Amino acid sequence: MKISILTRVLMLFSPIVVAQSTTCQLEESEFGIKTIAWDSATLAAKVTEYSNDIHEGKVTLVREHKPYGVKTNIYVQYQQPYYGQDAAEYVVFPTAEDQYRVIGVGYVFRNHQYYLSTSQGNYQATCIRH
Fold first, then answer.
1. Which of 68, 74, 89, 125 could form a disulfide with 94 if both were Cys (CB 3.0 to 4.6 A apart)?
2. What is the torsion angle, in degrees rounded to the nearest 10, for the CA atoms of residue 112, residue 118, residue 122 and residue 126?
3. φ/ψ (deg, to 5) at 9
4. What local confidence, expressed as pLDDT, does residue 32 receive?
């Protein structure tokens, strides 16, 4: 099978998509979550508590957050209620170059619906992409 010159040129200059993962360490928190991490290719996420409990989650929304980057929502549904909550959601966003915040809420599931339950905090974070 011969490959045309045009196909070779297109292959040479095609963008290469590289998966990127991000890990954020919360700076002000002494309880609750310690780190939050996700993979941009698989959309898998992990939230680690100060108790070292690790919760699997997923990236549910990514959108532009001008002028510093993107805002990312991460959703965690607990296998068993965790401190009375059935799920949590976190939003990670840049506030300046190399500065981030993580805010979160907890939900309870009643009558086939999720209801806002508690604040999970609003913390400054250091995020590293690798």
1. 68
2. -60
3. -65, -45
4. 84
